[in-house]
Amino acid sequence: MSSAEHAPAGPDKRPIRLFRNLWSKIAAIPMILVSVGIFVGGTIWTIVYSFTDSGLLPRLNWVGLEQYERLWSTRRWLVSIENLAVFGIASLILTFALGFLLAALLDRKIRFEDTFRTILLYPFALSFIVTGLVWQWILNPEFGVQSIVRGLGFESFTFDPLYDSSKVMIGLLIAGLWQGTGLIMVILLAGLRGIDEDIWKASRVDGIPAWKTYVVIIIPMLKPVFITALVLVTSGIVKLYDLVVAMTSGGPGISSEVPAKFVYDTLFTRQNLGQGFAASTMMLVTVAIILIPWALLQFRGKKND
Amino acid sequence: MKLTTKLLSASAIVSATSVGAVELEVTHWWTSGGEAAAVSELAKAFNEQTDHTWVDGAIAGSGGTARPIMISRITGGDPMGATQFNHGRQAEELVEAGLMQDLTEVAEAQNWREIVKPVSLLDACTIDGRVYCAPLNIHSWQWLWLSHDAYEQAGVDVPTNWDEFVAAAPALQEQGIVPLAMGEQAWQQSGAFGVMAIALAGEEAWRAVNIDLDAEVAAGPAYQRVFEAAVAARDLAADTNVGDWNLATNMVITGQAGGQIMGDWAQGEFQVAGQVAGEDYTCLPGLGETQVLDTGGDAFYFPKNDDPEITAAQLELAALLVSPEVQVDFNLKKGSLPVRGDVDLEAANDCMRKGLDILANGNILPSGDMALTPDVQGQIEDLMAEFWSDPSYTAEDAQARYADIIASAN
Amino acid sequence: MTKNSVEIRNLDLSFGAVKVLQNLDLDIHDGEFLVLLGSSGCGKSTLLNCIAGLLEVTGGQIFIKGHNVTWKEPNERGIGMVFQSYALYPQMTVRGNLSFGLKNARMPKPEIEERVKRASEILQIEPLLDRKPGALSGGQRQRVAIGRALVRDVDVFLFDEPLSNLDAKLRADLRVELKRLHEQLDNTMIYVTHDQVEAMTLADRIAIMKDGKIMQLDSPAEIYNRPRNLYVAGFIGSPAMNFIEGNIAGNTFTSGDLSVPVGDYDYMSGGAHDGAAILGVRPEHVLTDDMLPSADMTAKVKADLVEPMGADTLVWTSLEGHPFRFRMDGQAHVKSGDEITIGFNLTRISLFDPKTEDRL
């Protein structure tokens, strides 16, 4: 910085804008190279090769939209997309509902708040693999919940979501919520703590019931916090892979397959790069379809405010 | 520990005496007890009979985990000295891309075409007339393992073929015994289907579908019988609640299940449990219907290397793997069959002998790994996973989808 | 009973073992502007929150307009409240902020509109009604916050340091507006502040608090002229009152060479006092130069430090070993080191008992 400002050009010449904060720009170059080269370059490369019949190795043998046609007629892919949608919507709603409920409860200055917060946040410190294995045992009908309840005398009690293709996503959802809700709770709790206490007093003087204060006043005030949490949760959902691998390996049958697992299996186990790239391109498109309107909304919203 | 010591002393001797000695890294996914013991035989032979040193590069996890790692090292320019693949089409593209060492010289010098039995194993290593891999052992899928204990409980004779097996099922079910143990993993379900296809559709139809990729046969009456039998098998296996194959095998060992369709590696489980073939359990090759075995198995590939000394060492290892002593030592430990018919496995048990006899009679087929690309196998696995887990999936629907996959296969 | 708008009886409040308010009694007259004044931690905001019903009391009773509201919800007490941080609902327009509580109480729409209109007229915030709080200045926000209390049409307004977040100029302006508002509405207002200027200018009566107790409750003039104890004497006035420790014997206060005849001093208890005492003189009550002839007694001091402040000049010195400050005319020519003759009138001094710290 100083070198640019005290350049011999003299004070009467306007410093060239490009050279302002020169060192910070130089420092940012590796980051820019990495994100442009690896992220953007990799994305373009993936999209390009999704139009080829690449197998184990990439080769530029164009097949047009064939990979996409095959993809969208593959049952496993369709099931994966449907599962992701179901899991995504349910887990978004429930994570936020539960996370906010817990955060609001903790915010009511209960006793042992630290203890509760630690307990609830603890699962987040575990990887999805560990979470998956833990819940695989809990939900196992031979050893887990079902056998415990049956042991208490309820012989006809049945709870084996991981072995029933119509309920398997519920099993995954339970584990996902157990793992992820604590984080959302902590983020929202931090947001709630940032709310001016006078707002609460004002609403009490106005005679607004607590639930209504949350819904009408506090939650709108927490919008930035919610957006941060939303980005975290959504990216976790799209990436959903390890939990499925650890809990069900996509089973029973293909009933708990997810797109990320489809991509991995196709690329590496099935040695079909073209198909795998087509699937990952579709994932990118899906994310873009969700993100772009949201980004536009955000951007426009900023201008209006 | 012992192995390490041996390796260390061997390498010390080698490096002291020889100038052209190299350290050859060998990657594989043999990590279980019996497998590791078998690998150590290879290492011992290599270290003792050549000037070179075996550097063990075991990759934990299954082949599905290990293969992407191996492939990325080869394509990424960091090739190992030698690596395991299932012989077949797993490494086909790597060979086509010119990344694999040509072993034709060694094969011709040792006359592999004469000694390798079945010769299809060598064919699986051959692309455009050149040999690119050294076959090591044979594994076959076509076995039905039956529990004597289970049938005794049900008061029926141990079946001798598939039809008897199906007929005896109700008696087992009355005793609360699961007739067919089937691990809920796609590769097991797909493998079992393959076994039923060979046994019930017959060799000719199987070849038409898996080798000539004839979708009409796949949609035809021979395969219709297979899919109907698969529906029946699905009902028989409905009460299995296990995932891993060895847990399913354990159901057979403990008499909780009547039988299991599984490859010859299941034998190791029976041996570990102290059971004796013919007394505690029976094995029916080809489901007792068609006495034919597929001949999948393991082979070693040698990625191309710039260093001529390493190339020389690779060729030496390739020659060594097919040699009679190594074949005997390795396969006895591994529980698999040797790739040459001119060696004697005295220690082989009842089931292994049955397999050897079938091999000797030449009743063999290439394995699915050889015939179909991983991509096509993957699609079939998806279909089978869905089919086996969903009781409402009809035989007709499954057959139609199967025919579609075969039609689009290459 | 009806003369008092708010009555507080034996109020106790403790957080765990910490007693914040102790056995506190306070009557606030109808239409009175009462200021609760004290340094931070004295319990003044706590007391206000108790009146508002935002804190549960540990013991005692609170009456508003003769009703016992001790256990009533804040919105049932007939109070409106204005907060230091304005506490406006940021997602709502000004109109929404004013009407939200009324809507929630299911008040008919025309009446809500009527009240919002009236309040915004009084506070001159009509042009702002459709803006959101984010687009308002601090002064405008506080006016909206006052409006939110106003539309409730209540008897008692509570202000919790409402001007503390504003800059000095705005604070002065709004202070005047508040005073005008009080005269216009004639409601009871209870106002918490730590700023004695606000207290002196706004209050009908000031309650000076310390450690959860009211030290003195009187009109601003009384508090200024006849502080009830050492704490109040030191707290009110800037710079603070000068204190000189000494002795009274036979109607004369002596401290070292200084002797002050206190025979005419207006003792609170009526009778004269003998023994240890503290003499208190406000800096602005010290006479110099041409005012000296009217002084009851004089002394000579040496100026240590001179702070010219324009309107007047503050001189720092010491008297019989006690730090001593006094004000001179702004045009006085004094430099440090100068010797100055000072004097004071006995009618404007205060005497305190050093043991009880109470006014004699």
TrEMBL record, chain A:
Entry-linked InterPro entries = ABC_transporter_permease, MetI-like, MetI-like_sf
Task: Give any Gene Ontology cellular component.
Answer: plasma membrane
Instruction: Report the main location listed first in the record.
Output: membrane
The biological processes this protein is annotated with in GO are: transmembrane transport
Q: List, alphabetically, the SUPFAM superfamilies matched.
A: MetI-like (SSF161098)
Regarding the membrane, this protein is recorded as:
Multi-pass membrane protein
Q: Does the keyword Membrane apply?
A: yes
What are the subcellular locations of this protein?
Answer: Cell membrane
Domain spans labelled ABC transmembrane type-1: 81-296
| Presence of keyword Transport | yes
Question: Superkingdom of this entry's organism?
Answer: Bacteria
* Keywords assigned by UniProt, alphabetized: Cell membrane, Membrane, Transmembrane, Transmembrane helix, Transport
Its transmembrane ranges are 26-51, 84-106, 118-138, 168-192, 213-238, 277-297
Protein family according to the UniProt entry:
Belongs to the binding-protein-dependent transport system permease family.
Q: What is this protein called?
A: Sugar ABC transporter permease
Which organism was this protein described from?
Salibaculum griseiflavum
UniProtKB/TrEMBL annotation, chain B:
Cellular component GO terms, alphabetical: periplasmic space
Protein origin, superkingdom: Bacteria
Q: Where in the cell is it found?
A: Periplasm
Q: Where is the signal peptide?
A: 1-21
What this protein is reported to do is described as: Part of a binding-protein-dependent transport system for a sugar.
Family, per the entry? Belongs to the bacterial solute-binding protein 1 family.
Q: What is the name of this protein? A: Probable sugar-binding periplasmic protein
Provenance organism: Salibaculum griseiflavum
- Lineage start: Bacteria, Pseudomonadati, Pseudomonadota, Alphaproteobacteria, Rhodobacterales
Automatic annotation (TrEMBL), chain C:
Q: Which GO terms describe its biological process?
A: carbohydrate transport
- What GO cellular component entries does it have? ATP-binding cassette (ABC) transporter complex, substrate-binding subunit-containing
The alphabetical list of record keywords is: ATP-binding, Nucleotide-binding, Transport
Q: Which InterPro entries match?
A: AAA+_ATPase, ABC_transporter-like_ATP-bd, ABC_transporter-like_CS, ABC_transpr_MalK-like, ABC_transpr_MalK/UgpC-like, Mo/tungstate-bd_C_term_dom, NA-bd_OB-fold, OB_MalK-like
**Spans through the membrane:** none
Q: Which residues form the ABC transporter domain?
A: 6-236
Cleaved signal peptide residues:
none
**What SMART domains does UniProt report for this protein, alphabetically?**
AAA (SM00382)
Q: Which domain of life does the protein's organism represent? A: Bacteria
Q: Name one GO molecular function term.
A: ABC-type transporter activity
The similarity annotation says:
Belongs to the ABC transporter superfamily.
Protein name as annotated: ABC transporter ATP-binding protein
